[in-house]
Design a protein that fits this description.
Blueprint: E1 6-14, H1 17-24, E2 28-29, E3 32-48, H2 53-56, E4 59-66, E5 69-76, E6 80-81, E7 84-94, H3 108-117, E8 123-139, E9 142-156, E10 163-164, E11 168-175, H4 181-193, E12 198-199, H5 204-233, H6 238-251, H7 256-263, H8 267-280, H9 293-307, H10 324-336, H11 354-360, H12 365-381, H13 383-386, H14 392-402, H15 414-424, H16 432-443, H17 455-459, H18 464-480, E13 490-495, E14 501-507, H19 511-520, H20 523-529, E15 532-538, H21 557-568, H22 595-612, H23 614-619, H24 623-643, H25 649-684, H26 688-691, H27 695-716, H28 719-732, H29 752-768, H30 771-774, H31 787-806, H32 815-852, H33 855-858, H34 862-881, H35 883-889, H36 892-903
Parallel strand pairs: 14-15
Antiparallel strand pairs: 1-7, 1-11, 1-12, 2-3, 3-4, 3-8, 4-5, 5-7, 6-7, 8-9, 9-10, 9-11, 13-14
Helix pairs in contact: 5-6, 5-9, 5-10, 6-7, 7-8, 9-10, 12-14, 12-18, 14-16, 14-18, 15-16, 16-18, 18-19, 18-20, 22-24, 24-25, 24-31, 25-27, 25-28, 29-31, 31-32, 32-34, 32-35
Amino acid sequence: MMRMPMEVEAKFAIPNRKVYGQLTRVRELAGFSLVPAGHALVADRYLDTDDGRLQAAGYACRLRADEGAVIATLKGLGGAEGAVHRRLEEEVRLTAWSPDPTSWPESAARTLALELAGGAELRPLFDLNQRRARADLLDGDRRVGQLSLDRVWLDLTAPHRPVRSGSYHELEIELTPAGTEADLAVIAGELATVWGLLPESRSKFERGLALVQIQRAETAQFEAARPALEAHATGAEPELARRAAVLLAYADGLPMREAALRGGLSIGRARYWLRAFRAKQMAIFGAPKADSDHTARVDAHAAAGATTDASPQVPGTSEVPGTWGELLRADVSEAAGGQGTAQPAPAPAALLSVAAFCREHGVDMAHGRFVAAQARLLFDALRPVHGLPGKRRRLLKQAALLHTLAAAQDPKRSGEAGRDLILAQPLRGVSTADRLALACITAFNRDKVRPKREPTMNALDEQSRPQVLALTALLRVAEALDFSRTQTTEIQSLEGLDASRCEVVVSGPHAEMDALHATGRADFWYEQFQQELVFLPVAAGDRKIATAGERPADDAALAVITSAVTAETPAGAPPLTLPAPPLPEAQPLLSDEPMSEAGRKVIHFHFGRMLYHEPGTRLGEDPEALHDMRVATRRMRAAFQLFAPYYEAKTIKPLGRALRRTGRTLGAVRDLDVLLGKAHAHAASLPAEQADGLAPLLADWQARREVARRQMLDYLDSDDYRQFVSAFERFLTTPGAGAVAIPAGEPTPRQACHIVPQIILARFEQVRAFEPIVGSSAPGSADGAPVEMLHRLRIECKGLRYAMEFFRELLGPEAAGLIKQVVGVQDLLGELQDACVAESLIAEFLAQQRRKRRKQQEARLDGVEAYLAAQQAIQTAQIARFPEPWAALVGADFRRGLMLALAAV
């Protein structure tokens, strides 16, 4: 897939027309000037294939008519963090309105649309019409972004009933290439704090799609009921006939006013019966008289609806028993009691229960019931944390059974496929609201839960959304507790229920495997409740709180669990902890092995360290985890450069690109951690009134760091990263993979002992090449050297250090002291580089603040300016310290020691 530009914007909901009007008159926002850029009427149409291929691939397709221009856009369905949305975007200007991508000009947008559609026609989903007031956000001459104030109407188009939503108001700020996310954070902060606007996490497409989902469900409801409605419309009871006529007219797409006229009711009465039908279905008609001609007609129409091809059907109702249409036909036939017809039609099957529905679709019921039991125990024990009402246990049990509904039919999209099955099938004893919640929980059966991307989440009411997320979090860990699919790993006790870390003790022959997976799947619980769930395996029978078939009483659940812990744990014993996996050990290098295999060992060692530190990096509590993960990627990149000649380029180039991306993504956060750490340390050394002067700079760097960390986590959660790790591991664990072939019979240097000395000497020669520029041994010889050149020297020193460390076990005993010398020079130059970077960023921050010309802000910049001077002083001091270790590094003693170390290879 091609790389697409990223759209970054902030969205806020505007509560009413009054606030909307006030915002149109604003001319300054968060220190930025607002320059009106005109009004426009914008018409959008969203498109997809009939089977929703674009949405399934994570894209939305939009045609826009804006002031005479027609633009086709492909947008990624990216998520939102608060008010900020980040989405991939590709667009092309069209000469005419055309939903057919084959007629679009050659462009990345056309290529992507054709690829996603796969030959299928794009059809309308819905239309958006908006009146938009635009204003440019300026910071001096820099155009940071564009602010849009929108009044939006949404219209559903064919094949749905024509429906226009009520209008709503929204504010958008889209960054331009000159704007930064730090600018956006400042603006969004003022809108939230000063104006009191709430972030809008849903895109316009998501809002429209939610209405489409609702409309589809309503269409299915009407079509399933159509045979019975037609029977009532032609029946002998005028009141019921008028009622049915209104509903049929509305189902046929007539506006409510015309539907009311067709049924002979007032518009108010027509709306009343429409609302009643949505809530109670056919129950609004009551029970028909069993001995009337009307009963016969209803029964005949119902039977015809079950067998006649011309009768409208919900997809799947002719094959799957238990649909709404069959229930309606069963109700009518049962009410008729078989009277009034010579040969009454047999009563269709009633709606399926959840369990029957699961069995019909091949669900592993033993697994489902076991998961339900473990989820119920967690529900009761953790109720003080999640706070869900007790009645939600029933929904949790149903969700446990339905969780793997489509796993066998569609393993790659089991969550989405299961959701669609549930939405298409009413279930006995399950309300429409609960069915929607079950569909949503099932859709979240995936590696990463992204609630803002799930359409059914938008269709839930506000009260149900947090409950669905809490149930999802419980179910994820309960399902992982049977990862082994043996139904043998059971919860025994919980410790630290009200703490930030709760330990769940489990037992069983496969407890170690299941506990490991359950701890991994507890990530979503932590997101929801900021509590870490850790599952610890113990021998079966050590602790017991309840059997899988028992449930502690609601009021005593917590007491049972905690008493089991306190009664059976020896006094003063430390809490159980899951031992951390050991750091990977390096495989010994052999002097006579090929360089390709020596490289594989070196890189594999640091690859293992990268993966070892990934969980801590994700958690973000200890900055050293990120530091260690980044160091591992740096060393892997250095090893890649060193060993590259011994592998085929086509094999290692894709891996090298992905490794560089990983290193850059981690480095963006780590560099800011270093800056912030040193700035906080400097502030701590100052009196309180002076330390406060650094607050604006620290806030700016912290905002940048949060943005960089979000981007890092998004990357670590991405398919690109998972594919990189998988491909890299295959390469590193397959001997001979990608190795350059050695000509048979040719005396080609290929073993480590042939090549290592020349590699290390070449890197030392590259370091010595800086002598004419930075001097050799005279005090103050580096005073006139450009800082940029010293930065390059630092990189070369790092290359020499890594090369010596990679082959340390092959070198002589002198290597340890030599490496220590190289590290000393590298660290000194590293401190110099950190101060240079800090100086540059501080100067950029000061210039930005001064351009805003905000007197209140200017009064607080003295501390920042003082910190700028401190960074300049550090550079002067480091340069003054440089000549002595540098002279030792390039001196005769180092060279002699290096030759002795290499002689041992």
